[in-house]
Design goal:
- The complex is a heterodimer of chains A (183) and B (655).
- With 183 residues, chain A is α/β, with parallel strands linked by helices.
- In chain A, strands 5-4-3-6-7 form a five-stranded mixed beta sheet. In chain A, strands 1-2 form a two-stranded antiparallel ribbon.
- Chain A has a single domain, classed as Glutaredoxin (3-Layer(aba) Sandwich), CATH 3.40.30.10.
- Among the domains of chain B are: 165 residues, no CATH class; 112 residues, no CATH class; 101 residues, no CATH class.
- Chain B contains 20 helices and ten strands.
- The longest helix of chain B has 32 residues.
- Chain B starts with a helix and ends in a 15-residue tail after the last helix.
- Classes of the chains: A alpha/beta (183), B alpha+beta (655).
- Chains A and B meet through helix 1, helix 2 and helix 3 of A and helix 12, helix 13, helix 14 and strand 9 of B.
């Protein structure tokens, strides 16, 4: 009877997906957005609903956009390293996705705030525009506002050194990067 | 030289596992009892060698042998001794060795406990366990050898991840792993039944206590994991729907379904092929959990060093174990004949709906966990599935399950008149509605409809579970006593009720406040007065910390003094919070230090979480119920019986 074959068929479909998933490096998924202008957005700030954070703020800067949320356990691991990046002079803008404001503010108070500001994307609409797959994800935005690189999963010193720094140096020479108008 | 002995012991264990896999299975097929007799000594030998290898690795940790790569990566000379031990399972290679140790233990226990079973059955069960063992041993030896050396040896180690330096972590894997790995035993029983074509009530009776035992470990392990996340991750949540939490939760749901399905198979001789299917699925999901944590396919807090080669190896093992079992199932399942029927209103029907709901819930969680992976595969774009999906789907499936549970406990086998059920359950239902609606209002002064539904459901399960013991009390000594198995069922379901009440109330009424405070500040939150006395530096063995002092008053009386810490570990410098928690049955007060704000001022988080202890109390009571059920007289007598087949029929009518 054919119905007895359902379990084994399901298993092999699943295994097929895993097999492909295994050889797709999550960090290497190329986003169709790379090389294109970063999608525009305008959202209230996490810390102060009265202040707007928008794509305009990034204009003329080499900056990171880091997707995070307090529900994202890996973001916590990444956090300490984000604070180091901030010290090195690269501005980081946060995109706080599907979170509640109190927990997000609390997170920043408690773990330190590496962000110039964080946009509060309550229903994840901006995250969808940006093709966000999960959190944490980090985008590198060039001075002309194009997305230069996207990294999925926590940033680590190795990833930073090998994938981000060369691109940043190409864009602006030594750190800290001058803004477009200044240098 | 000593670490190489460990590796050598693993090679010997692999050899023995191959013998244990091949000869007893062949012997059972050809009726050669001399081959079958090899199963038990091979299992015992394997246990000895794996334990020896584990002891060698432990020795390397205790003697700070940083020439061993795994020790150097996960330990440090200043690491407290207890954590040097837990560091063994704090990384991928060591945790695989721990996995193996658990498997060897279960195999040994099965070999030892199967003395009264027919040789053919126990040989097949041990043979299948031998195959599993050979697979995992080769995986460990060929892709994840914990005894690999570093040349030259570093002067000191890299230290254990500070998140894992915690008493909860001391206990979490040692309880979770036996549960995970223990699912291999019902799997082996299921495959043995498919091989022999023999699958009857007696088979179900042999398999059931092992299943419950593994389920108990899973239950306690998941509970400890939740508790650990609560105070160590530091934002007061108790379940995150993290991919790896889900990976441990799915086998639990399957095992729960399996226990209930086994009850029907044991009592009534039906649901046989379904039981087999569940047993195979539960173990497959355990393996899937291992795959997900170690392959890098999904990203999670628990992810060990990810490596596609390891992932590919585990995937092949899954294809071999589960694929083989499912093919066998497709070929042999039609041989299983139901020994009876049942009506729409009967205990069987309720247990069937329990199974369907649990399996659908597992499927929904599996889908949510793997959804991003599917979409990525099919190039359909990228999406993340979050907490709202899981919360919604899971509670919508579990509420009906809880309603049915309250009825099903009192339904008779085969057929039960609706009128009898109605008479019996009228009072518990009335009590549940009365308590569930009024209590939230009395205690908290507000309640949403959803909250009331949740609390009513919890009380409904509690009241229904208590019905039998209360009736027993009323009858006094004259009535028929409840068996241990029945008490187990009552307690386990009582635990479900506690859990539902706890989860609902703590979600609905938790109070969260954050503020900046200076020494001497005094403020009020949720009816408590808190005074911040300031912080002082303290020094741990491998960290420095600021320790705050908070006095907690209620109605002017000092309740307790809390000392939350903010730690900075010396080697891996991420700051960690140790929350100060004032725990009581009806409410936790949780104080954690945030960032220093200068001049002695601090950002401080206070959480008041009513009833959160009921979440864990509920699951622990479930586990205790399982313990009672697994040690029921009918399983113990069987162990003492001189020969198979002489199983005394139990007089009770419990599931």
């Amino acid at each position: 009877m054919w119905r007895y074959f359902i379990p084994v068929a399901l298993l092999f479909v699943l295994a097929g997906f895993f097999w492909r998933g295994l050889y797709m490096d999550p960090g290497a998924i190329t986003s169709p957005l790379i090389g294109k202008p970063a999608p525009a957005f305008s959202l209230p700030s996490v810390r102060d609903p009265g202040v707007l954070v928008s794509s305009e703020d990034l204009a003329g800067e080499v900056a990171l956009v880091n997707v995070w949320g307090t529900w994202c356990v890996e973001c916590r691991h990444e956090h300490a390293f984000l604070l180091e990046i901030e010290k090195s002079g690269v501005p980081i803008y946060g995109l706080n996705v599907r979170d509640d404001r109190a927990s997000a503010v609390d997170w920043l108070e408690r773990l330190g705030d590496p962000y110039v500001d964080s946009a509060f994307d309550e229903d994840g609409k901006v995250a969808i525009d940006w093709g966000v797959y999960g959190a944490p994800e980090t985008f590198l935005i060039g001075r002309d506002g194009t997305i230069l690189h996207k990294h999925i999963s926590p940033l680590t010193p190795t990833v930073w050194r090998e994938d981000f720094l060369p691109l940043i140096e190409k864009e602006c020479g030594a750190l800290p990067c001058p803004r477009a108008g200044e240098g | 030289m000593i670490p190489e002995f460990g590796q050598f012991a693993l090679v010997l264990a692999l050899t023995l596992s191959l013998i244990q896999a091949a000869l007893p299975l062949a012997g059972a097929h050809y009726g050669r009892s001399d081959w079958m007799a090899l199963a038990r000594p091979a299992a015992a030998g394997q246990f000895v060698f794996v334990t020896f290898a584990f002891a060698i690795l432990a020795y390397a940790f205790f003697t700070d042998d940083f020439s061993v790569r795994f020790v150097a990566a996960n330990s440090h000379s200043q690491l407290p001794v207890a954590y040097k031990f837990t560091a063994i399972w704090g990384g991928h290679e060591g945790s695989m060795l721990f996995w193996l140790l658990m498997l060897a233990l279960w195999t040994f226990a099965v070999a030892w406990g199967s003395a009264s079973q027919p040789l053919e059955l126990s040989s097949r069960v041990l043979g299948v366990l031998g195959i599993v063992s050979a697979g995992i041993l080769s995986f460990t030896l060929f892709t994840s050898n914990p005894f690999d050396r570093l040349q030259p040896a570093p002067f000191d180690g890299n230290d254990l991840n500070p998140l894992l330096q915690d008493p909860g972590m001391l206990m979490h894997p040692p309880t979770l792993y036996p549960g995970y790995v223990g699912m291999s035993v019902p799997f082996a029983f299921a495959v043995a039944a498919l091989l022999s074509g023999r699958m009857d009530k007696e088979w179900a009776r042999w398999m059931r206590p092992w299943t419950v035992a593994a389920w108990i470990f899973l239950t306690v392990g998941i509970t400890l994991g939740s508790w650990w996340a609560y105070y160590e991750l530091g934002w007061g949540g108790w379940w995150f729907w993290d991919a790896v939490e889900n990976a441990s939760f799915m086998p639990w749901l399957m095992a729960t379904a399996l226990i209930h399905s086994l009850a029907v198979t044991e009592r009534r001789g039906i649901f046989k092929s379904w039981t087999v299917l569940l047993a195979i699925s539960a173990f497959s999901l355990s393996l899937l959990g291992t795959f997900l944590t170690r392959s890098g396919v999904l990203i999670s807090v628990h992810a060990f060093a990810s490596d596609p080669a390891r992932g590919a190896f585990i995937l092949m093992l899954i294809a071999l174990f589960s694929g083989g079992a499912f093919v066998l199932y497709a070929w042999r399942a039609r041989l299983m004949v139901a020994e009876g029927g049942f009506k729409l209103l009967s205990r069987e029907a309720f247990l069937l709906s329990n199974n369907i709901l649990l399996v659908v819930a597992t499927g929904a969680i599996l889908l949510g966990t793997l959804y991003p992976l599917f979409l990525r595969n099919l190039d359909l774009g990228e999406i993340s599935v979050g907490r709202p999906y899981f919360d919604f789907v899971f509670s919508m499936l579990m509420l009906p399950l809880a309603w049915l549970l309250g009825v099903g406990m009192h339904a008779a086998w085969k057929k039960v008149p609706a009128e009898a059920l109605r008479r019996r359950l009228m009072w518990p239902a009335a009590i549940a509605v009365a308590f569930g609606v009024t209590l939230p209002w009395l205690l908290f002064g507000r309640a949403s409809v959803l909250t009331m539904v949740g609390v009513v459901t919890g009380f409904w399960v509690v009241a229904s579970a208590l019905l039998d013991p209360l009736a027993r009390l009323k009858r006094g000594a004259k009535g028929v006593g409840l068996t241990r198995g029945h008490w187990g069922m009552v307690l386990a379901h009582l635990g479900v009720g506690f859990f539902i009440v706890g989860a609902t109330v703590t979600t609905a009424y938790n109070v969260e406040t954050d503020r900046a405070v200076s020494p001497g500040d005094r403020w009020e939150t949720a009816g408590f007065e808190i005074v911040f006395r300031g912080t002082r530096p303290v020094e741990g063995p491998n960290y420095v910390a600021d320790e705050g002092e908070f006095e907690l008053y209620r109605g002017g009386e000092l309740l307790t003094v809390l000392h939350p810490q903010r730690r900075q570990y010396r080697v891996q410098t991420a700051p960690m919070t140790e929350a100060g928690i004032h725990a009581s049955m009806h409410r936790d007060i949780f104080v954690a230090l945030g960032d220093p704000l200068g001049g002695g001022a601090w950002a401080v988080r206070v959480r008041v979480k009513p009833f959160i202890r009921f979440v864990w109390l509920g699951t622990l009571v479930m586990a205790f119920g399982g313990l009672l059920a697994a040690t029921d007289r009918r399983y113990r007598q069987r162990a003492k019986a001189p020969a198979a087949g002489l199983v005394p029929a139990s007089s009770a009518r419990e599931a």
